[in-house]
């Protein structure tokens, strides 16, 4: 599964791309922002046992959520 976004006006900050399953943090990906308009992406190789409600958040350098996407993962049986 992939998340792709564009980071705007965050130059000099380290942004965190956070994957969570049912509220449990699964992965944090730090991104150092070096320009006023910078693409950012992250991926999670989904496992069959990781069914449920997922959240991908983008946190700015102060830890504030600036974007969030939610999805349900239910692999075929």
Low-pLDDT residue spans:
none
Order of helices and strands: EEEEEE
| Percentage of residues in strands | over 45%
Characterize the main sheet.
4 strands, antiparallel
> How many helices does DSSP assign?
0
Number of domains: 1
Average pLDDT, rounded to a whole number, is: 97
Order of adjacent strands in the largest pleated sheet: 3-2-5-6
Protein name: DUF2914 domain-containing protein
InterPro entries: DUF2914
Domain DUF2914: 13-71
Descriptive account of the structure:
The strands form two sheets. The chain has a four-stranded antiparallel sheet, with no helix packed on it. The chain has no helices and six strands. It has 77 residues and is mainly β. It has a single domain (2-73), classed as Immunoglobulin-like. The chain has strands at residues 2-8, 14-21, 24-32, 37-43, 52-59, 65-73.
Quick recap:
The chain has strands at 2-8, 14-21, 24-32, 37-43, 52-59, 65-73. By secondary structure, it is mainly beta. The protein has one domain: Immunoglobulin-like (Sandwich), CATH 2.60.40.
SSE blueprint and pairings:
Elements: E1 2-8, E2 14-21, E3 24-32, E4 37-43, E5 52-59, E6 65-73
Antiparallel strand pairs: 1-4, 2-3, 2-5, 5-6
List keywords for this structure.
single chain, Immunoglobulin-like, four-stranded antiparallel sheet, two-stranded antiparallel ribbon, 6 strands, DUF2914 domain-containing protein, DUF2914
